Amino acid sequence: MSKLEKYLAKAAEDVPRKTMTVKIDGEIWSVRSLTLTELRACERMADKGDHFDWYRYNDARIVKATEHDFAWSNPELLKAYRAVEKYELPARLFNANLDGYAKLLNAVREISQETTEAELIEEAKNLSDPTEKPPTFAEHS
């Protein structure tokens, strides 16, 4: 099998992700590990040019890690909480339940820490363009 065939086959695979559950207000929330592309999307959402919005970053990670189990994009939910987009909802849903928000965020952090650097590097290799040259860094003296 050539390298190209190998990665074409991987593209069609459904790779299982690590998951964990956390109980909040009597409800079980399923939290899954984030992929490299999801983490990058969260970083892009939080990058405000001259500063980084950590609240936005954490809310985006919560949404991405739980959207397989919870309908953050539900129009009725968005309307009920007067949110324009789903990434505004974690803070609004848990506005009066800081402990619930903290539990969910800690679960996202914990499951993310279990994702090893080697796994992220392997995923990055799978996503990169094989004709793309690696970046070079100028040495500073």
List keywords for this structure.
mainly alpha; rbstp2171; two-stranded antiparallel ribbon; single chain; 141 residues; globular
Please provide a written account of the structure.
This protein is mainly α and about 140 residues long. It has one domain (about 20-125): rbstp2171, CATH 3.30.2220.30. About 50% of the residues lie in helices and about 10% in strands. The chain has seven helices and two strands; from the N terminus they run H-E-E-H-H-H-H-H-H. The chain has a two-stranded antiparallel sheet with strand order 1-2. A hairpin with a 2-residue loop joins strand 1 (about 20-25) and strand 2 (about 25-30). Helix 2 (about 35-45) runs antiparallel to helix 3. The termini are far apart. The model has no long low-confidence stretch (mean pLDDT about 85).
What is shown here, in short?
The protein has 141 residues and is mainly alpha-helical.
Query: Any guess at the CATH architecture?
Result: 2-Layer Sandwich
Q: Helix share of residues?
A: 40-55%
String of helices and strands = HEEHHHHHH
List how many beta strands DSSP finds: 2
Topology, element by element:
Layout lengths: L2 H10 L6 E6 L2 E6 L3 H11 L7 H13 L8 H6 L8 H5 L4 H17 L2 H11 L14
